[in-house]
Design goal:
The radius of gyration is 30 Å and the shape is elongated. The protein is of the alpha+beta class and 261 residues long. Strands 3-4-5-6-9-10-8-7 form an eight-stranded mixed barrel. It has a two-stranded antiparallel ribbon with strand order 1-2. Helix content is 20%, strand content 26%. It has one helix and ten strands, in the order H-E-E-E-E-E-E-E-E-E-E.
Length: 261
């Protein structure tokens, strides 16, 4: 009797249907894209903040060490007829007061993009360097507060206009909306500390509402928000709502006191 040898027939490898392959590839791409987007979000919301905040704090330390190392400047003689800010009579007008720091002329403007002052807002726990200019790469993205170059300098008559990021890159103005009338804002320079007091907040206005930076600030979009008399003003601006640049949030203050170094 012959013994039959069993024949083993290997089955063919079934190929995955085309639709399934397309879905699988799409799922892999979606997971990869999601991971990349997550890394970008972490970079923008955490890493850029950490980098900018550390650099800004270092810059504040450098400024303060430089100021402390300066020898005391000798007293300068007053200009003829000057009385350290006493009232003067102007031709055809009422008496006016001239700030003491202006009797020897306006100091030269700080170099473009250079940090030259420190902004402190106790209400929101902010300490940040102030640089000349409002360029993103050169100033704002470093975690600095930017000074509009054609606005007044700290302590001067007119309007000291400042801008800062509300989100990412150090976000110095993250909590600017928490300021209330009566809160103090300090601006330190090599010459003096200028104390401003918050007077009013404009919660939302158009980015093109440039009159909020005028020497006597007001809103051309919201006419009820305005000052009418010349003075020494401070304007803080940032984007709103958070994580957008659709509108601008504006905080106005007025100069209360000056303390020389």
């Amino acid at each position: 009797m012959r013994e039959r040898i069993p024949v083993v027939v290997q089955g063919r490898r079934t190929r995955r249907p085309r639709a399934a392959r397309v879905l699988w590839t799409g799922a892999e791409l979606a997971v990869t894209l999601g991971a990349v987007l997550l890394l970008l979000v972490v970079h923008q919301l955490w890493w850029t903040n950490r980098q900018a905040q550390d650099a800004a704090h270092d810059q504040v330390d450098r400024l303060e060490r430089t100021w402390d190392a300066r020898p005391p400047s000798p007293a300068e003689p007053a200009a003829p007829g000057a009385d350290d800010g006493a009232a003067r009579t102007t031709r055809g007008g009422p008496p006016s007061r001239t700030p003491a720091r202006r009797t020897t002329g306006r100091p030269p403007a700080p170099p473009r993009n250079a940090a030259y002052a420190v902004l402190r807002i106790p209400r929101i726990g902010l300490t940040a360097p102030v640089a000349q200019g409002v360029g993103k790469a050169a100033v704002l993205n470093k975690g600095y507060v930017g000074h509009y170059p054609y606005s007044a300098e700290p302590g001067e008559a007119g309007n000291v206009a400042l801008a800062g990021h509300r989100n990412t890159h150090g976000e110095p103005f993250r909590r600017l909306d928490r300021l209330r009338p009566g809160d103090t804002v300090l601006l330190d320079t090599a010459e003096a500390r200028y104390t401003y007091v918050v007077r009013r907040t404009l919660p939302r206005t158009a980015p093109a509402d440039g009159t909020v930076l005028a020497a006597v600030p007001y809103s051309s979009v919201h006419p009820a928000y305005r000052f009418t008399a010349p003075g020494s003003y401070l304007t803080l601006t940032t984007c709103t709502p958070e994580y957008t640049s659709t509108y601008r949030l504006v905080v106005w203050g007025v100069l209360r006191s000056t303390q020389s170094r």
